Amino acid sequence: MIQLQLKLQGCVSVQVNAGPLAYARAFLDDSRSSKHPSKKVKELKDIFKQFIHACGTALDINEQLIKEDQFEYHEGLKANFRDMVKELSDIIHEP
């Protein structure tokens, strides 16, 4: 369970260099995506969709495994995940 939480934290609670969002901004932002082959841009968007799905699944599993004393921590992960999904959706123009 601790390994799962560490992975989740690294994916959805990144604070040092913005993690996955930094890559999304660098390659998929409207002002930059036209500089890259459209096939690769679509591929990266699809990968981000898979990433979001995997993080959501991991959060569901974590919620089943945690004890009461980790509820607040888990809620923080979920809030960070929602924020990340919203920002990624804005960047890739997908709901």
From TrEMBL:
InterPro entries: DOCK, DOCK_C_lobe_C, DOCKER_dom, DOCKER_Lobe_C. Gene3D superfamilies: 1.20.58.740. Transmembrane segments: none annotated. Pfam families: DHR-2_Lobe_C (PF20421). GO terms for molecular function: guanyl-nucleotide exchange factor activity. It comes from the Eukaryota. Residues 1-95 form the DOCKER domain. PROSITE patterns: DOCKER (PS51651). One of its GO terms (biological process) is positive regulation of filopodium assembly. Belongs to the DOCK family. This is DOCKER domain-containing protein. The lineage of its organism: Eukaryota, Metazoa, Chordata, Craniata, Vertebrata.
